[in-house]
């Protein structure tokens, strides 16, 4: 197989970063990205893109840590390069504050972010309702810039991108040798994964350029994440809700919760409300399988179900998925050799 | 009681406000008048980035360390007030970078979360092998000065756009106390060979992805003569010029290139930043701040002068501590005058 044809379905952060990893690992592949939505209309565009991992209950911690570390290392290098502003990658420092001391002393990612340490008494004065906190510096991926930058890198690598709604993976079997499923919430319909469910998140994007730090309350329901041109205020976690319409009462509630953490936000301007559905799963599905129908086989690599943690682990899972694509190619090459004998 | 303040930079305006706040209630006849050649946005304070950070060494002036602390604590107390945004006041964290280990500064316990940089953090800054991280405050002159002006105007303080050539010009005619907050121009009012300009130049850029201040240090050279990057609320300041004895307020192409090249080396992404302005200013440098009383006499007229100038590159950092000290000196003058005003006792 001279030039395996790979279709990546999905153009959010997972689809684009997986496609990019495939072009890096398998330069001879012809990669095409197919998606019904591209930036700025993906779920990834709603998210703040903070590198603060979500813990998946059913994925081993060492694997999550590896994914996070790879992602952090990759973005860290971009953040200090000349491309940082174009790629939308920047460092941001801040605080995660708790009203009561958390059960676990240190999160698994504390040695990967920068300068992680408990907050001092003086620092906690800023948060009178909170008794404990962590201070650290991490990275933020601003979207659309990061997605647009990935698209640019893909185009430079010869990747084609098409707007197309894929209703069934089998649609692709005649044009492509391997299909990579990065459809996020779309996988619920596309592959009938009932373990995947939406967790609705509403956010406000506001103009408050004097806010230079992130603030995250406890388990992350309320947060303030300063980006390049706006500050993302959040949020909600509504399990099982499929609604993409902003709710006015929720907007008021988010704004109040954030102002309580950062009073200066009362002066914020240009409030834009957005909604995204976190494609949530007990464990991220990074897995290959071979679909079979009437004697025809279709190798598929899945990379979806990142829920609240897509940005934090995107590069790590993209690399893993790209290696699985490599395995699919080896298998195809093996079987095509056998077919010739 | 009329008080004339010369200078409308951060020192003049804050001293005036501090005195009015403390004494107007005790002395309803108190009238303050501010005379200045330049008002916001044309003062030295307007050009400064506005970062609260003292020099690395206290130069033996422990008083100044106290005034710095008073200022920080005062500002921190205002951080959550509704006025903070209007004042141009917000928290900011960042990096101080060195090419060798240095002792901790006098202000390490004044700022928040002061710590050394980790090896991984230092990877961000090739060429620097040691550094600090801390959280401090920004107080942007272009917002703070108008805020101070509004507070003063509300209190009935009068402003006069005038270059004052001598203390006598404003004293006499019922003006009992003159506050000399004339910064770099103090030498025009009274020669002071210790006051010299430390000329700075800055480039203003749009770089909203930069959320931290980054200040590099070259221990062999003057402070702020090594590149620094300070993100504000509307633009980011790039700097790294400190020329002792240079009185020029013209932007220099050579300095522009030096700032641009050295800051882009520090943060390569700055190459893409749009330049929106450039400015040169004179830090009113002195071995120590001159904050003291002086009695002047012209014929029969006596006037008390309170000097408050020579704050170099830390005016914003120290301003409130100095304003309070100036107010204390004013209080002493008031007490003395009241003693003089007390009717003499019966002679026996």
CATH topology of chain A: Rossmann fold
The string of secondary-structure elements of chain B, in order, is EHEHHHEEHEHEHEHEEEEEHEEEH
Query: What is the CATH architecture term of chain A?
Result: 3-Layer(aba) Sandwich
CATH superfamily membership of the domain at 1-50 and 140-194 and 287-347 in chain B: NAD(P)-binding Rossmann-like Domain
Question: What Rg of chain B is obtained from the alpha carbons, in whole angstroms?
Answer: 21 Å
Helix-strand topology string of chain A: EHEHHHEEHEHEEHEEEEEHEEEH
Q: List segments of chain B where confidence is low: pLDDT < 50 over at least 5 consecutive residues.
A: none
Q: Assign an overall shape of chain A.
A: elongated
Cα separation of the termini of chain B = 33 Å
Question: What is the helix tally of chain B?
Answer: 10
Taking the sheet with the most strands of chain B, its summary is: 9 strands, mixed
Pairing-aware structural class of the strands and helices of chain A?
A: alpha/beta
CATH class of chain A: Alpha Beta
Number of helices of chain A: 9
Our Rg estimate of chain A from Cα atoms comes to 21 Å
Helicity range of chain B: 25-40%
What's the average pLDDT of chain A? 96
The CATH architecture of the domain at 1-50 and 140-194 and 287-347 in chain B can be given as: 3-Layer(aba) Sandwich
* First and last CA, distance of chain A: 15 Å
Percentage of residues in DSSP E strands of chain B: 25-35%
Residue share in β-strands of chain A: 25-35%
Binding site for FAD (chain B): 44-45, 49-51, 164, 312-317
Pfam families (chain B): DAO (PF01266)
EC number (chain B): 1.4.3.3
Subcellular location (chain B): Cytoplasm, Cytosol; Peroxisome matrix; Presynaptic active zone; Secreted
């Amino acid at each position: 197989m001279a030039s395996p044809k790979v279709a990546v379905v999905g153009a959010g952060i997972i689809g684009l970063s997986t496609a990019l990893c495939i072009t890096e690992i398998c330069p001879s592949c012809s990669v095409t990205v197919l998606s019904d939505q591209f930036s700025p209309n993906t779920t990834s565009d709603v998210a703040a893109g903070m590198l603060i991992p979500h813990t998946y209950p059913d994925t081993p911690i060492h694997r999550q840590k590896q994914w996070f570390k790879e992602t952090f290392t990759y973005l860290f290098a971009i953040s200090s390069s000349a491309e940082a502003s174009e790629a939308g990658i920047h460092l941001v420092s801040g605080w995660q504050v708790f009203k009561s001391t958390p059960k676990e002393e240190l999160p698994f990612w504390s040695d990967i972010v920068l300068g992680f340490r408990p907050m001092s008494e003086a620092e906690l004065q800023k948060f009178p309702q909170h008794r404990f906190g962590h201070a650290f510096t991490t990275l933020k991926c601003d979207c659309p810039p990061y997605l647009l930058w990935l698209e640019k890198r893909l185009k430079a690598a010869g990747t084609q991108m098409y707007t197309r709604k894929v209703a069934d993976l089998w649609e692709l079997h005649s044009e492509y040798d391997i299909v990579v499923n990065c459809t996020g919430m779309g996988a619920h319909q596309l592959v009938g994964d009932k373990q995947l469910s939406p967790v609705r998140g509403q956010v406000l994007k506001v103009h408050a350029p004097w806010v230079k730090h992130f603030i995250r309350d406890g388990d992350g329901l309320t947060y303030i994440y300063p980006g390049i041109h706006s500050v993302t205020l959040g949020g909600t976690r509504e399990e099982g809700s499929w609604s993409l319409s902003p709710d006015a009462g929720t907007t008021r509630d988010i704004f109040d919760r954030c102002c309580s953490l950062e009073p200066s936000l009362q002066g914020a301007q240009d409030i834009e409300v957005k909604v995204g559905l976190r494609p949530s799963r007990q464990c991220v599905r990074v897995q290959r399988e071979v679909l079979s129908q009437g004697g025809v086989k279709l190798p598929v690599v899945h990379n979806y179900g990142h829920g609240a943690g897509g940005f934090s682990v995107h590069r790590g899972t993209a690399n893993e998925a790209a290696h699985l694509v490599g395995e699919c190619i080896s298998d195809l090459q093996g079987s095509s050799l056998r077919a010739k004998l | 009681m009329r008080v004339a303040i010369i200078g409308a930079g951060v020192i003049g305006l804050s001293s005036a406000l501090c005195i009015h706040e403390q004494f107007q209630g005790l002395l309803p006849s108190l009238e303050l008048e501010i005379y200045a050649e330049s008002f916001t946005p044309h003062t030295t304070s307007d050009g400064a980035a506005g970062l609260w950070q003292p020099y690395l060494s206290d130069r033996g002036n422990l008083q100044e360390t106290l005034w710095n602390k008073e200022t920080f604590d005062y500002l921190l107390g205002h951080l959550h007030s509704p006025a903070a945004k209007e004042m141009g006041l917000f928290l900011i964290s960042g990096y101080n970078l060195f090419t060798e280990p240095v002792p901790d500064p006098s202000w390490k316990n004044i700022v928040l979360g002061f710590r050394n940089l980790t090896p991984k953090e230092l990877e961000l800054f090739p060429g620097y092998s040691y550094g600090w991280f801390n959280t401090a405050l920004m107080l942007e002159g272009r917002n703070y000065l108008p805020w101070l002006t509004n507070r003063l105007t509300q209190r009935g303080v009068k402003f006069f756009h005038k270059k004052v050539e001598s203390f006598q010009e404003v004293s006499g005619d019922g003006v009992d106390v003159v506050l000399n907050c004339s910064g770099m121009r103090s030498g025009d009012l009274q020669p002071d060979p210790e006051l010299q300009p430390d000329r700075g130049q800055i480039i203003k850029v749009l770089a909203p992805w930069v959320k931290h201040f980054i200040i590099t240090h070259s221990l062999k050279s003057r402070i702020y003569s090594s590149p620094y990057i300070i993100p504000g609320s509307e633009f980011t300041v790039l700097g790294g010029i400190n020329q002792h004895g240079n009185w020029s307020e013209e932007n220099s192409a050579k300095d522009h290139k030096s700032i641009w090249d050295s800051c882009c080396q520090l943060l390569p992404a700055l190459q893409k930043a749009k330049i929106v302005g450039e400015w040169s200013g004179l830090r009113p440098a002195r071995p120590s701040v001159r904050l003291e009383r002086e009695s002047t006499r012209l014929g029969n007229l006596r006037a008390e002068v309170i000097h408050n100038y020579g704050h170099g590159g830390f005016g914003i950092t120290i301003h409130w501590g100095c304003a309070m000290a100036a107010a204390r000196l004013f209080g002493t003058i008031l007490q003395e005058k009241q003693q003089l005003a007390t009717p003499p006792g019966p002679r026996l």
